[in-house]
Design a protein that fits this description.
single chain, about 90 residues, mainly beta, 3-stranded antiparallel sheet, 9 strands
Length: about 90
């Protein structure tokens, strides 16, 4: 099943690739075994590059993909965090 995971506020979807939880996953497919994620620098900041989707450098990772979903009460915490954060603070040029 293909999941879009970059929904504002979060949809409670956690993506794992070969047992490792992925951060900044944009979309993934557990049947085809791939995940498309934003690339981070050595300090964990997202790398901006306007040649890529949404102005972020992305990479395709291949392996065994699994999904888990947060309970509804955890999703509301994620939504509150999303509204309060400043996205530019996470971007590295």
């Amino acid at each position: 099943m293909r999941m879009t995971c970059d929904i504002p506020g979060g949809n409670g979807c956690n993506v794992y690739l070969d047992g490792e939880k992925l951060r900044y996953c944009i979309e993934a497919d557990d049947l085809e075994g791939w995940a498309r994620c934003a690339v981070q620098d050595a300090h964990g900041r997202l790398i901006s590059d306007h040649r890529y989707d949404d102005g972020l450098m992305v990479e395709m990772r291949v392996g065994s993909v699994t999904f888990t979903f947060d309970p509804p009460e955890e999703r509301t915490k994620a939504e509150a965090w999303h509204v309060e954060r400043k996205p530019d603070a996470f971007l590295a040029s």
